[in-house]
From TrEMBL:
Protein name (record): Alkaline phosphatase family protein
SUPFAM superfamilies documented for this protein: Alkaline phosphatase-like
Species classification: Bacteria, Pseudomonadati, Pseudomonadota, Alphaproteobacteria, Hyphomicrobiales
InterPro entries: Alkaline_phosphatase_core_sf (IPR017850), Phosphodiest/P_Trfase (IPR002591)
GO molecular function annotation: hydrolase activity
Domain of life: Bacteria
Short name of one Pfam family: Phosphodiest
Amino acid sequence: MNTKLLLIVLDGLPWRNWRKFMGNLEGWVQSGEARVWKMRSVLPSTSASCYASIHTGVPPQVHGVVSNETLFRVAQPDIFSEVTKAGGRTGAVTHSFWSIFFNRAPFDLVRDIEYDEPEGPITHGRFHTMTGYNHKNQMTPSDIDLFATLTMLAERHGIDYGILHTCTLDSMGHRYGHDCGEMDQALFAMDAMLAPFLPRWLKAGYEVIVTADHGQTARGHHGGHDDEMQDFALYYFGRGAGPNEDVLLDQLQLAPTVLSRLGVRIPETMRARPFLD
C-alpha cells in the first residue's frame, strides 16, 4: 500500500448542517490541515443504494441495489475486494448491509456479527443491524463505541483500509427532521465524539475521509432528486492534491479515489475519475 486510509461515513447528513454545526471538522479546515468539498449522491438517494455505489463506483442502475429492500452480494469489484487482492488488510465497523453487499448474503447474526477472515474481502468485520428500528426507538449503537472499535482494528490488526458507518444522524433526521433542537444537539455530540479520534488516526499514519452517503430534507426525507437529499460534505485529511473547493464531486468518484490513494489498481468498472492526485 502507498498509504493507509480510513473512510468515515455519517449517514444522512446534508451539506448545510455539516458546514454549520460540525465545528471540530470546520476547525481543521480553517487551520489548513483539512480540505472540504461538496459531493452529490447517486439516485435514488436511498441508503443501501448509496452504500453499494460508495464502494463499487457504479450507479444503482448497474449494481442493482435500488432500494433498502434489495439486499444481495454485489457482483462488481469494490474497495474491499481490490485491497485484499493487492495484499492489504481491510476493516469494517458498519451496518450489516455492508457485510451483505461485499462479503456474503444473507447476513447470519451469529456468524457475521463479528469475524476475522484473512482471505477477505473484509478481513476484520464488526457489524450492527439496528433490528427493531422504528420511529420511537432508533436502535443505534453509541458512536463513540464505533469510533473506538475502528481504532482497535487499526491498532491491533494494522488494517490498511477501514470504513466506519453510523446511522445515528440519519435516524435522528427521520425522527425529528434536520431543523430542530434535537438535531442541533445530535450534531454537536457527533462532532465531539469524533474529535479525539481524528488526531490519533492521523498520528498513526492514516489519511482520513469524513463524509456522508446522502443528505436529508428539513422534514427528514431522502431518496429523491433534490439538492437537500443528495448533497453533503466530504472532508479530507491527507497529502493528496484535490480540485478547487467550488468543484462539485460525484459520489462515483469516491471508490476509485480511495484505491488510488492506497496505490491499488482501479478496476475497469470504476469509470469515474479520482478527485485526489
